[in-house]
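Hi, here's the filled form for the chain we discussed.

Project: internal
Contact: R.S.
Residues: 395
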Amino acid sequence: MTSAPLPRILRRRGEPEYPTFLELFFDLVYIFMFSRLAASLAENLTVRGAAQTAVLLLAAWWVWVLTAWLTDLFNPRLPIIQATTLLVMLGTLLMAIATPYAFGRYGWLFVAAYFSIHLIRDAVLIPGTRVNHPIQARSIRVFFWFGITVTPWVAGVFVDGTARLVLWSIAVVVDLGSARIGWPTPRLGRTELASQIFTGVHLSERHRAIFIVALGELILSTGTGLAGSDFTAGQLAAGAVAFGSAVLLFQLYFQRVQRILAPPRVATVERVRPGTSTSYSHLVMVAGVVLVSTSTSTVIDRPFGHAPAGLLVATLGGPALFLLGSVLFDAVVTGRLLWSRVLAIAALGALMAPAALLLPPLAALVLANLVLLITLVGEGLAARNRLVGAAAPSG
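And the returned structure, exactly as it came back:
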């Protein structure tokens, strides 16, 4: 008995594993998406504003994740997959345009774009994999769960305020959570969480690319904020510190990724459970960068004076959120906690004491960078000591 042949639409083992130029081009739309999210949050630095931004970021991230998985599981060089990717890119652009008004008059546009993306994707993948039932079943499971969440998404369009926030929160949590449990579906079961479906090198490179895009938005936000300023000494200093934030986040991310995702550990992310966990931990890191972008643009505008509680939380919470994501990522790949970053999170949390409200915004940004710098230097020295110890001859 022979197994069914692989459909032509699927990526085959041994094919080039690095992202194509089209995939990198697709990521560019997320510079706009992240900038819209950061700017919207900066205008509403409240608990409600943070919750609304989180819901919209989760929806945007889910689109990115499914597209990364699309080009990982399916042949990204086929015209049908390339056309699908471009249509998803257009839909994401419409979502980004609607983002600042998604909880207002343009909620319908955000939801329409979101579901059009998924309908287009599944309309291509389900018929395209009909000769291989297990693979087609995976796409049907995803489509089934979008059929469940369409109700709260659409219902949210017809209500306002807290009701829309609650309905959309439920919908987006179910969207992401269903993947974590393998999309259990009547008569089709669920995707086995231990099954090997991803390409480790490709998926890892896609996550690195989207993190670079998030940093690119941070640089854009810093430059735009400084360009629109009066170039006072305080604003120039805030711009320099904000640029330092981008450099430190870059170094902290890639210094660690290079160490833990060298072969054979990169194969860890090829299975469903760790692969999805890797995507979710990167979501937390990217959310941290977006929050840093929110705070830096505000600090550049007003470097001195009273620091509102919301701005203080964003300034210190952004780096803490990034570090939390990196701790979760490290735990997925290595199975261990990176204690240097756990301690850094605790330090940032301690700086959020009520007395910190007396600090000017620029001082809070400097303190956040100082914690990141100490963490970076400490990890670098620890890694160097381990290398020296391993190279020393045993006596």
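Let me know if anything looks off before we file it.
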